[in-house]
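User: Sequence in, structure out. Go.
Assistant: Echoing your sequence, followed by the structure tokens.
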Amino acid sequence: MKLWDGRFTKATDSMTDHFNSSLSFDYRMYKQDIKGSMAHVKMLGQQGIISLSDSEQIQQGLTDLLNDIQTGKVSLDQDSEDIHMLIETLLTQRIGDVAKKLHTGRSRNDQVAVDMRLYLKDEIVDIKKLILELLQSIYNIAEKNKETFLPGYTHLQRAQPISLAHHMMAYFEMFTRDYRRFSFARDMADSMPLGAGALATTTYSLDRKLTAELLGFKSICQNSLDAVSDRDFCLDFLYSCASLAMHLSRFSEEIIIFNSHEFKFIELDDAYSTGSSIMPQKKNPDIAELVRGKSGRVYGNLVTLLTVLKGLPLAYNKDMQEDKEAVFDSLDTIKMALPIFTKMLSTITFNKQRMYEAAVGGFTNATDAADYLVKNGVAFRDAHNIIGRLVLLCTNNNYTLESLPLEEYQKISDVFKDDIYDAISIKKCVLDRKVTGGPAPEAVDKHLELARLMLLSEQGLVE
């Protein structure tokens, strides 16, 4: 018997029951569903909508049911339409007809909305902790490598020399933005929809402010139609997941490239690598590749919900049941990828000598050579042309700018003196870039201090 079947003259087809059911995935919201019900029924009692004794009996029944579910005494693997109906059915079996008063002044439409908001608020806290752990790992690597030099790239071509610390702190900025996006997504979920009913509130004198306070919401949804049909907070969450997945994928791509034999900038720890079933020499960056690959499913979940919502009239429609699997899958994917990525990153060995040789051998100091001319009175466009000719000369004769004899410099421009070699040393090229946001150690130190304060203020994670 279904809790809503009074209007019907025949049972629903078994295929209808199966197709309509969401219990197979919304069971995970049982804590939030019970928490929302406890607040709702407490409010009903205090408002005199049901008696205080009935309210207290229902609250105790819900408390006992929650404890039994958490200790494994009650299984949620049962036949029911959804988690809301199952909880009410289990409660009724325990405490009798008084449980039927629980749903007074409430609809499953505002009930599922409050469950989803509570669930995401809880889960976002966990995701933010995982992001902070990744940020801490990045910070630790950067703090130790302010004078570890490597090429910076544009178009995947060696461009200018930077430090490993500077490179790592670029990702610190990316993941800090993700952290803030999840904070925003949590704020968007922090508005209480209970009391909206099916779509038009109720004639009962509900105290929505009290319910919101009991559930820890900052505000109350101000329009009942919007309260039950809004899933923007889910979209905000899914976009935050997609952005985070994109940044993890970019980082993974660089790890994969830098780990290749062609680069050899890093060595992955054996614990976070795999081998080949046929080629015994292989050590594959499968963790980074999987993290990169999983970005696709996270993007897909965002597009799924956007597509579900795009044509829905007000207010609630059953289509909105499709929000949960998209949200849950992205949540699970992110919570699985973040910890292993952080562990992989924290155990990487950096080949500092190879990085330095790549910076020296890739004409990454060519801009500094041009700047040398500019500082000696040559117009930048002329300087650019002169250095371009020198690079061509070096390329054709197997020189670097550091090894090119001074007489070859002076054949192209008599402005060059023997101090050119100091001006284009890789270390000096990096150390002279002191502009805020630059790779010079003193600039990186300022960035690291801001990062340190951020980590301390959020979680106290800096060691």
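User: And one key feature?
Assistant: The first helix runs from residue 14 to 20.
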